[in-house]
């Protein structure tokens, strides 16, 4: 089969590799019908996530048709149309039982590596480094899915792939970002980053009763989506005289937003001196992440407010004003998404027509175009918001 | 302080639920075996497992099924009520190194404790496993303690599973938990990938893509 492989920093290539087989009794193999590139794949592409190796198959957002099931699979059957959550969970450990699916005890074969870095290991992920399990990803024509009766969500309705594909990660991830913000009716919520997760966080904040959502980015096409599809008030931080902390104060009657959501994470962009400082330190491996948004969010949020972090962080941060967080009595929520908790209820919001997630798709491509699109998106060219891949076509011309 | 404020403060002070009486004497942590000395490695691992002590005790007692969840056990044969013969090595490498020994159960407390020691063979080791229901009802604490004489067994663990004896104890208990809870040992052995290059190829064993991993399921144990 064809698969998009990570071949080193800033290098993705399509290779023909053997088809995946059933390895464990609870596995299934899925024929992938649609897959997507995630913003967090750019952290891999840029070489900021340790324990990636040449040849690793990328991709953790995918859906398809069940091709084969292992001997211990009871519910899922060949021919089922499924969306697969990017976190792999066993469904029976203490954490899965507490709805903390992204913290599953039993899915990571390389838990010992994560234990060295983090103390304890979270769940495994598809195509997201060996520390996170080393499972082959889904930017490929077929993919092996462990714990087939636990993860895959069967789509019974005739909704097209493009409307349900984002249940594999970014819609639930944006939703958990909003849920972790503990929004009370009428609250003002600020969201950094109007990429796919940020846009879903804005849409979800509205669903959860926010009175006003303020969206922060620098790309006009993204800010337009935030205004027109999600009803947000937008701030372009790259405009002259715009200071984000001040803008948020001005837009909240001098009080600050009730909740701040960091949908950017470890590779924040900043035009300031501190931003340059982070880029240099990150390049020299003196810090792993550039936490510019996190600093701004801590500064901006109102006293006693909530900080929610769906943006990915990998390691050691520098110059975080923890005193501000303490002094203002902030609450924080963060982490990988507990996918299995959100997929079914969020599918219902799509079926009810409350949201059509396909609004953010900017590029539809074939598998051979994927390597170039990684570069295009990384360099923020061609107004990319979301890239969807049909792995069975080499090239799609728009 | 105004009367109103004073009253509010007083209400807040008195509205706390009083602390419950202490019900038991607390514990003080004593380190479990974690050293190497005089030619011995002393190691331990501890996990909470979502199952009853009796069920876990039964699973551990069924020694002939160890190969289903422990990757460096080739076979175990019962030779008596308390004795068994063990063959260890890489089950997938028929010509690979094998280490054989006899083992005897030295203490057996149903649903609570099993202790063992080697009696004859190429290696010397003894150990014990404890099963105790958590007081908070959140599963069973399983504690595995092993003492290895440095030599063939440690070398074998290093050779087959690419692990230190201490990490072997941790991984053995992790795999026991995974089999008990999830019904299988998670594995990426044999999955497809693109060209590894030199450095990626060297590291494949470290990432579990080449070393043996049991593919047994809960229906067999």
Structural overview:
The complex is a heterodimer of chains A (398) and B (221). Chain A is α/β, with parallel strands linked by helices and 398 residues long. In chain A, 27% of the residues lie in helices and 20% in strands. In chain A, the strands form four sheets. In chain A, strands 3, 5, 6, 9, 10, 17 and 18 form a seven-stranded mixed β-sheet that branches. A six-stranded parallel β-sheet of chain A has the order 13-12-11-14-15-16, with helices on both faces. With 221 residues, chain B is an alpha+beta fold. An eight-stranded antiparallel β-sheet of chain B has the order 1-2-8-7-6-5-4-3. In chain B, a hairpin with a 2-residue loop joins β1 and β2 (40-49). The longest helix of chain B is centred in the last third of the chain and has 18 residues, at 165-182. Chain B is extended and about 90 Å long. The termini of chain B are far apart. The chains are: A alpha/beta (398), B alpha+beta (221). The A-B interface holds A 1, 3, 5, 7, 13, 15, 17-21, 23-26, 51, 53-57, 71-72, 88, 90-94, 97, 105-112, 124, 130, 133-136, 144, 146-147 and B 48, 50, 138-139, 167, 170-171, 174, 177-178, 181-197, 199-200, 203, 206-209, 213, 215, 217-219.
Structural class of chain B: alpha+beta
Low-pLDDT windows of residues of chain A: none
Biggest contact? A-B, 47 and 39 residues
Q: Which word captures the global form of chain B?
A: extended
Poorly predicted parts of chain B:
none
The percent range for strand residues of chain B is: 25-35%
Radius of gyration of chain B from CA coordinates: 24 Å
Beta-strand content of chain A: 15-25%
Helix content of chain B: 10-25%
* Count of discrete alpha- or pi-helical segments spanning 4 or more residues of chain A: 13
Largest sheet of chain A: 7 strands, mixed
Number of strands of chain A: 18
Approximate shape of chain A: globular
Q: Describe the strand arrangement of the main beta sheet of chain B, using strand numbers.
A: 1-2-8-7-6-5-4-3
Order of helices and strands of chain B: HEEHEEEEEEHHH
- SS-derived structural category of chain A: alpha/beta
Tally of helical runs of chain B: 5
Distance between the termini of chain B: 70 Å
């Amino acid at each position: 089969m064809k698969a998009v492989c990570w071949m080193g920093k800033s290098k993705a290539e399509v290779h023909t590799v053997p088809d995946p087989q059933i390895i464990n009794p609870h596995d299934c193999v899925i024929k992938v019908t649609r897959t997507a590139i995630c913003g967090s794949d750019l952290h891999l592409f840029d070489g900021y996530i340790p324990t990636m190796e040449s040849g690793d198959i990328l991709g953790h957002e995918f859906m398809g048709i069940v091709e084969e099931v292992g001997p211990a699979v009871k519910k899922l059957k060949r021919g089922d149309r499924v969306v697969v959550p990017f976190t792999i969970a066993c469904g029976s450990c203490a954490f899965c039982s507490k709805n903390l699916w992204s913290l599953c005890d039993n899915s990571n074969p390389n838990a010992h590596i994560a234990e060295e870095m983090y103390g304890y290991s979270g769940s495994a992920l598809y195509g997201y480094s060996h520390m996170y399990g080393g499972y082959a990803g889904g930017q490929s024509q077929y993919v092996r899915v462990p714990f087939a009766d636990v993860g895959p969500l069967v789509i019974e309705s005739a909704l097209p792939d493009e409307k349900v594909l984002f249940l594999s990660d970014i819609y639930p991830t944006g939703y958990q970002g909003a849920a972790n913000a503990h929004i009370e009716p009428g609250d003002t919520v600020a969201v950094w980053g109007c990429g796919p997760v940020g846009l879903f966080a804005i849409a979800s904040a509205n669903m959860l009763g926010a009175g006003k959502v303020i969206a922060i980015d620098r790309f006009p096409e993204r800010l337009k989506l935030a205004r027109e599809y999600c009803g947000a008030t937008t701030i372009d931080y790259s405009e002259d005289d715009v200071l984000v902390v001040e803008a948020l104060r001005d837009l909240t009657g001098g009080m600050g937003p009730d909740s701040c959501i960091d949908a950017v994470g470890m590779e924040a962009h900043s035009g300031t001196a501190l931003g340059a400082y982070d880029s240099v330190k990150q390049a020299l491996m003196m810090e792993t992440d550039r936490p510019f948004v996190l600093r701004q969010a801590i500064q901006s949020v109102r006293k006693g407010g909530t900080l929610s972090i769906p943006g990915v962080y990998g390691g050691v941060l520098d110059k975080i004003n923890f005193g501000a967080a303490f002094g203002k009595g902030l609450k924080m929520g963060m982490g990988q998404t507990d996918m299995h908790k959100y997929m079914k209820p969020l599918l219902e919001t799509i079926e009810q027509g409350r949201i059509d997630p396909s609004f953010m798709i900017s590029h539809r491509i074939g598998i051979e175009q994927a390597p170039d699109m990684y570069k295009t998106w990384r360099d923020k060219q061609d107004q990319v918001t979301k890239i969807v891949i049909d792995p069975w076509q080499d090239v799609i011309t728009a | 302080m105004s009367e109103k404020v004073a009253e509010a403060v007083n209400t807040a002070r008195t509205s706390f639920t009083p602390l419950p009486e202490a019900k038991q004497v607390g514990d003080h942590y004593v380190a479990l075996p974690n050293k190497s000395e005089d030619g011995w490695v002393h190691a331990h691992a501890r996990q909470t497992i979502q199952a009853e002590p009796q069920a876990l005790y039964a699973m551990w007692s069924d020694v002939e099924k160890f190969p289903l969840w422990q990757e460096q056990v080739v076979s175990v044969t019962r030779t008596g009520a308390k004795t068994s013969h063990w063959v260890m090595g890489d089950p997938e490498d028929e010509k690979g190194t094998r280490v054989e020994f006899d083992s005897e159960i030295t203490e057996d407390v149903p649903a609570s404790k099993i202790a063992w020691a080697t009696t004859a063979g190429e290696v010397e080791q003894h150990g014990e496993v404890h099963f105790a229901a958590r007081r908070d009802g959140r599963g069973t604490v399983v504690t595995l303690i092993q003492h290895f004489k440095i030599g063939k067994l440690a070398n074998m663990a290093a050779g087959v599973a690419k692990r230190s004896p201490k990490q072997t104890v941790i991984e053995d208990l992790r795999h026991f938990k995974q089999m008990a809870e999830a019904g299988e040992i998670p594995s990426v052995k044999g999955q497809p990938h693109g060209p590894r290059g030199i450095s990626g190829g060297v590291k494949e064993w470290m990432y579990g893509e080449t070393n043996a991993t049991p593919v047994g399921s809960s229906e067999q144990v």
